[in-house]
Amino acid sequence: MSVISASLAIAEGDYAWTGTMELADPASFQRIRIDDPVTLELGGETFQMMVDNKTLSRDGVSRPRLTVSLISPTARFAAPRATPMERTWDAAIHALDAAEEAVGEAIQWDLVDWIIPAGRLAVYDAAPLDVVRTIAEAAGGVLETTPGGVLRVRHRFPVAVPQWGRITPDHILTDAADNLSCRESHRARHRVNLVTVRGWLPSGGHLSAEVDRREDGLNRGRTSFHSGGTAHLLVNHGPETTIQGITASAGTLLSNADQSFTVTEDVTLDGTNTATLSQPAQSIQSVIWLGNDLGALNLAPDGMTLLASRSGVAVARVTFSVRTRPWRLSAPTQVAGLDSFPVQVRITGMSGDSVGDGEIVCQRGDGEFPGEDISDPLLATTEAKLSRGRAEIDAGEDLQEVSLTCVHRPGVSPGQIIEIHDALMGRSWRGKVTGVTHEAIGSRITTSLEVQRVPTRS
């Protein structure tokens, strides 16, 4: 197969390499089918690709232009090629394991790997690649594909911005041997050097009590009681809470057999994918979306948090089953000579919840430029939250955009640190690669790079 020209490119945030190749032979063009594997070698670097599309164009009697569009083979995990998934990970799982389960193959994982607790990762009508991207972005990562066709998850800033000048760069480009052209620009950025990162804080430590107000309940709908009478209380507790004691300021308390019944209530989702029930549930019986439909609504292990498949603004009418411990309060006929008096009931419990406060503050320097608070239900460890926080702060640095073209540079990829010797400006500088384009026309191959650098202060 004779190739007249070819180009391949990838940008930070794009999961795959994409490109085109122009063929000289109509017979080879006709034999090619969509999704056929293609091995393309540019300047000694091998790219595993697949055919994404093909175009034939001809003007009059001139030679037809035969163009084949290429994409990394990992496109088979994205829409429209992939079958949408609907799944909840009911057991705790490492982030890497969950991502690899979604796509069914190994991933080059260059990001913190943390444990996602049971029930927090749930997807509905999502492509496998969407699942991997969701996990990666939670901890400040991006999803890419290597030239060899392997999915890669890396930190958006593999090296923190303040460390760029202290490491060995991945590539060094000089005016004498490499640089062909350069264009610099600057855009105003929203500076960020302080962010609050919250993970999902389970409410397994829930403990509450209320008078049984149910019309068909133990009090038959009554909410006020006479002295010398009996009032029934319902004590609700989460799956990780044990009741240590219950005492009353007057009268006696006796425990009754557990009660099981159903409750219906409306819950709201305010631009998120989580909502909270008023009390722990045993199971969800039914869900009716009153307007926007955010997909499947799953109950988290704490029994109170609901996880929707998508984020949005919505109201759901949820019917769920509860199991509660009733207590019978027998009040005395008089207290201190009074036949009308209040009674206080105190319940104590102990929670096995070891998650902590679920929140950390990430700061660089004086912290005078706070960013928006970050909340993500997948972030359950301090290490994962720190990774996300650093990504947001690095992205909030005052970085300058530079576009440059050089002679072909194999092995360069987004996220790498390059050093540029700029004779025109009389200085050297470093930056992070955010985009790569290789272009071959005949035997001439050039590489174009998009780079973020820290501006030089005069």
Could you describe the 3D structure shown?
The protein is built from 4 helices and 30 strands. With 458 residues, the protein is mainly beta. Among the domains are: 69 residues, no CATH class; 145 residues, no CATH class. Strands 1, 2, 3, 4, 5, 13, 14, 27, 28, 29 and 30 form an 11-stranded mixed beta sheet that branches. A hairpin with a 5-residue loop joins strand 22 and strand 23. It is elongated.
Key attributes of the depicted protein:
elongated, 7-stranded antiparallel sheet, mainly beta, 4 helices, 30 strands, single chain, 458 residues, 11-stranded mixed sheet
Helix fraction, binned, reads under 10%
Major β-sheet, in short? Answer: 11 strands, mixed
Give unreliable regions as ranges.
352-357
Shape: elongated
Number of strands: 30
Rg, Å, rounded: 31 Å
Distance between the termini: 53 Å
Amount of beta strand: over 45%
Helix/strand class? mainly beta
Average of per-residue pLDDT values: 88
| Total count of helical runs of at least 4 residues | 4
List the helices and strands and how they pair.
Layout: E1 3-11, E2 18-23, H1 26-31, E3 37-42, E4 45-57, E5 65-71, E6 85-88, E7 93-94, H2 95-103, E8 108-110, E9 115-116, E10 122-126, H3 128-138, E11 141-145, E12 151-155, E13 171-174, E14 179-185, E15 194-198, E16 207-211, E17 230-237, E18 241-248, E19 252-255, E20 259-276, E21 283-289, E22 297-299, E23 305-330, E24 345-351, E25 359-363, E26 374-375, H4 382-395, E27 400-407, E28 417-422, E29 427-441, E30 444-453
Parallel strand pairs: 8-12, 13-28, 15-26
Antiparallel strand pairs: 1-2, 1-29, 2-5, 3-4, 4-5, 6-10, 7-9, 11-12, 14-27, 15-25, 16-17, 17-23, 18-24, 19-23, 20-23, 21-23, 22-23, 27-30, 28-29, 29-30
Helix pairs in contact: 2-3
